[in-house]
Specification:
The chain is α/β, with parallel strands linked by helices. Helix content is 39%, strand content 19%.
Length: 285
């Protein structure tokens, strides 16, 4: 049903998946360190009425590597070229984590080419990312494991054993104890992280990935309907209450849904409830 193809943006070749032409275009942008297959659990609910496009970002999955160039501007240049040359018509964008950050850039700069925007638990401001110590510590641990050369089974176990300290907590918790973070998911993550360039995480940890990211200025330029999907910060969610308040005060057409039983990985943890919220939003456009 889904076919993988390559698209040359100029700076890099992007791998992407395309589904059947079942309706208007819906572009799925995955999170940092992931690949397009992260959306597979949601595809049955989305493909019936939408034409799905799902690229791998540069440095991720089967897309090309660009050492030293994993910055927001680079991801956006790739995404704009993809929208203009492959999708070729106004689209809805669903971005998770890094994909949400890129989606904000696109919606603020492309105007009517973006019909709607779904932000899946991404940090909304660069300041919040810098202050999100538990998330940065998790990304550092993933980066170190991703470049350790471990076999997949060992890597999956090591990922589950990462200790995460949550906001307001004095004790750390095994990542594998989070809701929905089961052995099958860690096996998938092990495969995914072994296929990426670990420098992607280094660029984020050093602040290079968000150079030039002015969230409030972007919000003021976004005119399309926006859905904020906020995971529970107590379970590792990244979208803070403070950032949501800023977004709600600036965005003209915004819906906010807080998923209390979910951590940052949303649809990877449990797809059906997330798909229901997303499809309801899509049907409202």
């Amino acid at each position: 049903m889904f076919k993988e193809r390559m698209f040359d943006t100029g700076p890099v070749k992007l791998n992407y998946a395309e589904g059947p032409d079942s309706g208007p275009p819906l572009v799925l942008l995955h999170g940092i360190g992931h690949r397009w297959q992260a959306f597979v659990p949601m595809l049955p609910a989305l493909t019936a009425r939408w034409h799905i496009y799902a690229p791998d970002f540069r440095g991720h999955g089967r897309s090309g590597r660009t050492p030293g160039a994993y910055r927001g501007a680079g991801y956006v240049v790739d995404a704009v070229a993809f929208l203009q040359n492959i999708v070729k018509e106004p689209a809805v964008i669903f971005g998770h984590s890094l994909g949400g950050i890129v989606g904000m850039w696109l919606a603020s700069s492309l105007g009517q080419q973006v019909r709607g925007l779904i932000l899946g638990d991404n940090v909304l401001t660069a300041q919040s990312l810098a202050q999100n110590e538990h998330l940065l510590a998790l990304y550092a641990a993933i980066r170190d494991l991703a470049q350790s050369g471990r076999l997949l089974d060992d890597l999956a176990e090591a990922l589950a054993d990462i200790r995460v300290t949550l906001p307001g907590k004095n004790e750390s918790v095994r990542w594998g104890q989070f809701p929905g973070m089961d052995a099958a998911l860690f096996r998938f993550l092990a495969q995914t992280y072994s296929q990426m360039d670990p420098e992607v995480f280094t660029a984020l940890l050093e602040g290079r990935a968000t150079d030039g990211w002015d969230a409030e200025a972007m919000f003021r330029q976004i005119k399309c309907p926006v859905l904020l999907l906020q995971a529970n910060p107590a379970l590792g969610g990244s979208m803070s209450d403070a950032d949501v308040r800023v977004a709600m005060s600036v965005l003209p057409r915004v819906t906010h849904v807080r998923l209390l039983d979910f951590g940052h990985f949303l649809h990877l943890q449990r797809a059906e409830p997330v798909a229901r919220v997303v499809t309801n939003f899509l049907e409202s456009l």
